């Protein structure tokens, strides 16, 4: 009762990633409510912990402490970035031999996403262009021919390829792939 039952709270000084814990969180000394003092990014800080000291107002004062562990959940905040084939202003140029047969590997589209789990798992698809001549593997991004090119085939084909993640709100990146048939049969 009285001062013996009056509890105050404080954070024990410590470091989180070489910064004082007081730059990360604060505590209400009367209620013990803990507040974030910054926004957290899972890719930078996955978790951190600190000590909270609870002390009564009695004489002598009695105290106890507990460890608080903060786990920062990943959100889908990173957009995929297409890293291959090399893009110039969002476009890649690829050359294949005119006599390329069915299943010929044209190129491999690769993208990076710094999120984790489903937020970082990528799928690939062709959304526009000469899709009747090519297919893309949704998992590994391989673009292959689906037919042979005859003598009268045009010399250039276009595909718009999208890499999208599997976050709840999916993020994506796209590229224009220009595919040229080399003039020589076996180039």
Automatic annotation (TrEMBL):
Domain Cadherin: 4-82, 88-181
Membrane topology: Single-pass membrane protein
Domain of life: Eukaryota
InterPro entries, per the entry: Cadherin-like_dom, Cadherin-like_sf, Cadherin_CS, Protocadherin/Cadherin-CA
Keywords from the UniProt entry: Calcium, Glycoprotein, Membrane, Repeat, Transmembrane, Transmembrane helix
Xref: SUPFAM superfamilies: Cadherin-like (SSF49313)
Segments crossing the lipid bilayer: none
Location(s), subcellular: Membrane
GO biological process: homophilic cell adhesion via plasma membrane adhesion molecules
Assigned GO CC terms: plasma membrane
Main localisation: membrane
Example of a GO MF term: calcium ion binding
Protein name: Protocadherin-19
Gene name as annotated: PCDH19
